[in-house]
């Protein structure tokens, strides 16, 4: 079909709208991300894929807007830049095929509604608005269709690449084990080069910036072997910026904490230690649960153990109700200083024994009592009446990316 050229006034209106789109407000971008990720909970709980989706959202918005600033109302070619193509790569590595269409259509709807609001703010001429909206509706739809076609092509290329080689064989074998398929243990061990007897601890290592130094992932995977007593771990690449690792036996976290401190882009989720093939599987799912909780809460913590977050993961599965529980339980104490919150958390952990708590915190008993009195002033109800609830709520705060204003 022939592409109708807009009239000069409408061309100018499209250009002005596009300029605003190119300089989109942060809250508009957040609205776009929220809509796409909320429509795809499995993606929202995967930090690496969620970050890739966010980058792709912004890239597409900027791409379409820039094209219409340059040539208002003209056809916009597909965005075949690194952001949408990285989406294709991540999808294939996770075995997901149906996501792009749904997500891009949700994003298209949000962007279209925002563009209409911008247009009606800039013009009140019915004829101009009618022409402008007709042109832009077709432009956005055609742009998304063409971009999706490019992603579909890239998906086929990535799938072909991933079906060859030893990495593919390891991924396939691990997938069978995790799915509970009846693969003989000896055959699985031969393909993995890893013994499935004894105990295992699974780890998920990921980087939220896939354009950064991904060699950090390999160093982290190697460090897990050292942290497990120098025994060789099993490492699988489920995506570009993620490693699934299993180590025989227990992992000493001190070495990993030092590595994470030196590698600011790396995050680590450690599962439980469990026995046999069932333990291999269960420990991995525990590590995935830990990773998903860190992503869901936008946690500032960069290393987490399932044994430390199991209760928080359960409570925060419904984020809105978890936030309500924290607000209701802590009141003003939610915004207390980290030092004061740590004091109360330690006090409850020591079964409300002031002497043991003071010794553990290396502080004077009278100082501890003053801090506890200050906590009671901020809490809706005295700590003695709800110590367990307060401790749980403080754990949620600890793992969440909530900004706190120090209150003493």
TrEMBL record:
Keywords: DNA-binding. Residues 340-394 form the PucR C-terminal helix-turn-helix domain. InterPro entries: CdaR-like_regulators, CdaR_GGDEF, PucR_C-HTH_dom, PucR_C-HTH_sf. Pfam families: GGDEF_2 (PF17853), HTH_30 (PF13556). GO terms for molecular function: DNA binding. Residues 187-292 form the CdaR GGDEF-like domain. Belongs to the CdaR family. This is DNA-binding PucR family transcriptional regulator. It comes from Mycolicibacterium fluoranthenivorans.
């Amino acid at each position: 079909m022939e592409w109708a050229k807009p009239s000069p006034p409408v061309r100018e209106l499209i250009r002005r709208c596009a300029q605003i789109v190119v300089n989109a407000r942060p809250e508009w971008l957040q609205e776009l991300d929220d809509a796409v990720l909320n429509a795809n909970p499995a993606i929202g709980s995967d930090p690496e894929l969620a970050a890739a989706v966010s980058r792709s959202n912004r890239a597409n918005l900027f791409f379409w807007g820039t094209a219409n600033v340059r040539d208002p109302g003209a056809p916009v070619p597909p965005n075949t830049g690194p952001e949408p193509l990285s989406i294709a790569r991540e999808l294939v590595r996770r075995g997901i095929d149906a996501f792009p269409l749904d997500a891009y259509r949700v994003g298209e709807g949000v962007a279209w509604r925002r563009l209409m609001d911008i247009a009606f703010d800039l013009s009140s001429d019915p004829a101009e608005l009618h022409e402008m909206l007709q042109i832009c509706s077709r432009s956005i739809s055609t742009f998304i269709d063409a971009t999706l076609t490019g992603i579909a092509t890239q998906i086929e290329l990535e799938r072909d690449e991933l079906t060859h080689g030893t990495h593919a064989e390891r991924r396939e074998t691990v997938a069978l084990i995790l799915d509970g398929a009846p693969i003989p243990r000896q055959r699985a061990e031969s393909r993995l080069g890893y013994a499935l007897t004894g105990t295992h601890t699974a780890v998920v290592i990921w980087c939220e910036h896939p354009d950064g130094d991904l060699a950090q992932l390999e160093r982290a995977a190697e460090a897990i072997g050292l942290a497990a007593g120098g025994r060789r771990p099993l490492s699988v690449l489920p995506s570009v910026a993620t490693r699934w690792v299993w180590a025989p036996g227990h992992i000493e976290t001190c070495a990993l904490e030092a590595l994470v401190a030196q590698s600011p882009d790396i995050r680590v989720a450690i599962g439980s230690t469990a026995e046999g093939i069932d333990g291999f599987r269960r420990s991995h799912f525990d590590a995935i649960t830990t990773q998903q909780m860190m992503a869901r809460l936008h946690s500032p913590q960069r290393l987490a153990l399932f044994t430390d977050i199991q209760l928080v993961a359960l409570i925060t599965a419904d984020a809105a109700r978890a936030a309500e529980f924290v607000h209701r339980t802590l009141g003003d104490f939610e915004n207390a200083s980290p030092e004061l919150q740590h004091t109360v958390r330690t006090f409850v952990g020591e079964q409300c024994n002031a002497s043991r708590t003071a010794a553990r915190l290396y502080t004077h008993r009278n100082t501890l009592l003053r801090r506890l009195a200050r906590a009671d002033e901020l809490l809706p109800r005295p700590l003695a009446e709800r110590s367990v609830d307060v401790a749980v709520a403080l754990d949620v705060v600890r793992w969440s990316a909530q900004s706190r204003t120090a209150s003493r």
